Amino acid sequence: MPNDQKMDNVSIIMLTARDEVDDRVKGLNLGADDYMVKPFSFEELLARIYARIRNQFPNLFGEVVIGPFQIDDRRKEIRLENRILELSPTEYELLKYLVLNHGLVLSKTMILDKVWGYDFAGEENIVEVYIRLLREKLHDKEHRLIRTLRGAGYRVDVS
What we know:
alpha+beta, two-stranded parallel sheet, four-stranded antiparallel beta sheet
C-alpha cells in the first residue's frame, strides 16, 4: 500500500502496561480509539473489538438474530420470539449490548461505560435497576436469559 494512501477503516486499541491518566490521554490523543491496560481480560478485548466493528460498520448490524432475539438497529427494536419489546432508549441500548455480547460476563463498569457513557456520574446501582426492568419485560423471573454472576457482572445466555 502506498504511504500516502489513507486507511479509513482501521481502529487502534492500545494494549499497554502504562496505566497513568496522562499515558491514557496521550495514547488517545495520538490516535488510539481505545486503551486497555495490562493485565487485561481477553473477553473484554474481544468485546471492545466487536464494539469497534459495530461502530465503524453500522450497516453490517442493521438487523441481527441471536438465539430468540432479533435486533433491528435501524428501527431501534428488539424482538423476543417475534414479540416486539416495549423498551425505553436506555433499556434498548442495555439489552442490545447484553445480547450482542452474549456468553461474555459484562461487569457493571463495562455496562456503565458502554450504555451510560464514560462520564456518567450517577450511582452504579442504576445497572441493577435497569436489569430488573429488563427481566420484567422479558418475563425472565428465573433469570435464565440475563444471569447474575455475583461479584463479576451479568451474562446473557441464548440457545
